[in-house]
Amino acid sequence: MTKENICIMISIVAYLLVVLGIGVWFSRRNKTADDFYLGGRKLGPFVTAMSAEASDMSSYLLMGVPGLAFLTGIADASWTAIGLVVGTYLNWLIVAKKLRHYSSRIGATTIPAFFSERFKDKSRILSVIAAIVIIIFFVPYTASGFVACGKLFNSLFGVDYKIAMIICAFVIIMYTMLGGFMAASTSDFLQSIIMTIGLVVVVGYGVVHAGGFGAVVENAKAIPGYFSLTNTYDPATNSSAVYGAFRSCSMLAWGLGYFGMPHILLRFMAIEDAKKLKLSRRVASVWVVISLAVAVFIGITGMALVKSGFMNPLYDNAAVAAGTAGAQSENVLIEISKLIAHNGALAAIVAGVILAGILAATMSTADSQLLAASSSVSQNIIKEKLFPKMTEETTMIVARFTLVAIAVVAVFLARDPNSSVFNIVSFAWAGFGAAFGPVMLAALFWKRTTKQGALAGMIAGGAMVFIWKYGIAKLGGVLAIYELLPAFIFGLIAIIVVSLLTKAPDKETVEIFDEVTAMKD
User: Fold this and answer.
1) Could you give the CA distance from residue 84 to residue 76 in angstroms, rounded to a whole number?
2) What are the residues facing 234 on neighbouring strands?
């Protein structure tokens, strides 16, 4: 192992020890399931904001988005980023405070439980279906994080992909299982700082060695369709392809996903004081704008470095033909970091911190996903439906066991090193956005929504993601759009139609809705 790799390894190991320490520290404070899953609703505004965005901006921020921009230019990546920025702001603006008030008023500690309590679902069918949706989409989502970890260590140190992926998964499982929500949120806050450092240093280094900002832009303009929001670059033909308005709108639909993301919505439910959500919203929105803009620019900077001969190509024609160029392009930040490491021991340590940022991005999302998935199984299926008299101590044991079991399944799904992080995340994102997004908005803002309507919307939205992606989109043309948009609309229509066709909510449900709506702070 070279001196540079040793310095990088020191930085990464130090980071992993810190997050494990956080897990051990908070393990002593978890006395109840509420502590484990919501931290006793004691999150401060900065931790709420940054942990929410760090858990949101998974490995696709440092690998998926730069890789997409590197491969095809700014159109796909930019329209996705714009949608995410708008979605982030609106989620904080219209959902956060009301969800905090509503979940506290009805005593819900998980998203499935919120749906059941909101609609007075004594059968708990909403909880069970919601829990199943979370498992279906969170397991592959978590697997995408494990894929990113395996790619990182395989690319850096030549470590066997599967071994590296399993070790990283073990660390994530341990600190999440020990410390629960507060450990995940605190480590996410730390991870958001490391991710920010990584983005800034990489783009700064890349721009300087590509010949300056102007040189990066000129290189992008010289590639057909690369530096355009209305065209995109096709690496297979080395030519420009039209990026139509319909396709742009479908990528903007990424923003709709926020309304249904359980690991983000849980942060809203857990903040200590709803009055501080305005500060959290501002912090989160600014961070998202800056981080996504820099991530896109890293992609086109990487292409400039390749064209200038400073960095080796990330893929060849064979990879384009085989369909693996996208997965290989996602290593752009890793390759730039390796170049930084060649400038001495201090630079190698900095590169290690940057690469720890990829781990941070991955771990900050994976821990939250594991918590959300395990809470769905242990709380909403095992305790609520199967063993309602289970003690708090037993519930905690079941919660931790469930977390490990779900992680093991995710490890199995992550065994393929050619998996594309961006593609996996985009599908899971669509699943949650379509299944939960319309239901969450209806639950918070339309008092006429019924239990049957919510159930119909949840099933219709989630099912349409599969139907559209693997069926309708294959027909091509204008139908080949991101599955979240049509699935979200279909789910919303199902909620409205079924709610109007079924009996209106009872008086108590409406009174609670009005009470929460009247709350100001």
Assistant:
1) 12
2) 239
CB 418 within 8 A of CB 131: no
Instruction: Provide the phi-psi class of 100: left if phi over 0, else alpha when psi is between -120 and 50, else beta.
Output: alpha
Question: From CA 260, how far away is CA 487, in angstroms rounded?
Answer: 13
Give the tens place of pLDDT for each residue, 450-493.
999 999 999 999 999 999 999 998 888 778 888 999 999 999 99
CA-CA distances (angstroms) from residue 365 to 145, 186, 464?
Answer: 8, 13, 25
pLDDT in tens, 267-277: 788 776 777 77
Full DSSP string of 410-465 = HHHHTT-TT--HHHHHHHHHHHHHHHHHHHHHHHHH-TT--HHHHHHHHHHHHHHH
Cα Rg, the chain, nearest whole Å: 22
Read off the pLDDT of residues 323-342 as tens digits, 9 standing for 90 and up: 788 778 888 988 898 899 88
Contact of 69 with 80, CB cutoff 8 Å: no
Q: What is the DSSP string of 108-125?
A: --SHHHHHHHHTT-TT-H
* Structure token pair of residue 348: 């190698």
Q: Please state, in angstroms and as integers, the Cα–Cα distance from residue 310 to each residue in 70, 198, 211, 302, 401, following that order.
A: 15, 20, 10, 10, 48
What is the identity of the amino acid at 388?
Answer: P
Quote the crossing angle between the two packed helices 262-270 and 345-375, to the nearest 10°: 90
What DSSP letter does each residue of 272-340 carry, written as one string? S-GGGHHHHHHHHHHHHHHHHHHHHHHHHHHHHHHHTTSS--S--HHHHHHT-HHHHHTTHHHHHHHHH
pLDDT digits (tens, 9 = 90+) for 221-253: 999 999 999 999 998 888 998 988 888 888 888
pLDDT for 57 equals: 64
| pTM (whole model) above 0.85 | no
